[in-house]
Amino acid sequence: MKTEWKRPEIYRLVNQLFRFGIVGGLATLVHLTVAWWVLQVWSEGSPFLVNLVAFLVAFQVSFWGHSRYTFRQKGSPWRFLVVTVGGFVINNSLLWVFLAIGVRSAFAAICLSVLLVPLFVFMASRFWVFSSASK
What we know:
mainly alpha; 5 helices
C-alpha cells in the first residue's frame, strides 16, 4: 500500500521542522553557552559533568519551546525527559568517541556531539512525546 502525501501535510511537516530547528538552535545555543561558561569557571572540570550541567539548563528551554512553539500542544514532560535523556546518552557516547579519537578541545568535542543528535529528538518528540495519542 502506497502512502500519498498531501501538500498541506508536507507544508505542516516542513513548518514544524523549521520551528523545531529554531527551538533546537536556541536550546543548543543555551547548552553551548552554559558549557563554555562552566568550562571558564571550572577549567579542570570533567567535560561529562560540564555537559550534564549544560544539558539540564537546555532541557528547560527545549521542552518549553517545543510544547509552545514547535508542536503547539501539551506533551508529556516525562516522555520528553526519556527522549532527551536518550539523546543525552547518544550525545555523551559521541563525546566519548570524539575525545577517544583525539579531539583535544573539550568544547569542540561537546559542539560536535551536540550537533549530531537533533534528528532522533525530533522524530521521537513528534511521534511519541507531542503526538495526539500521548495525551
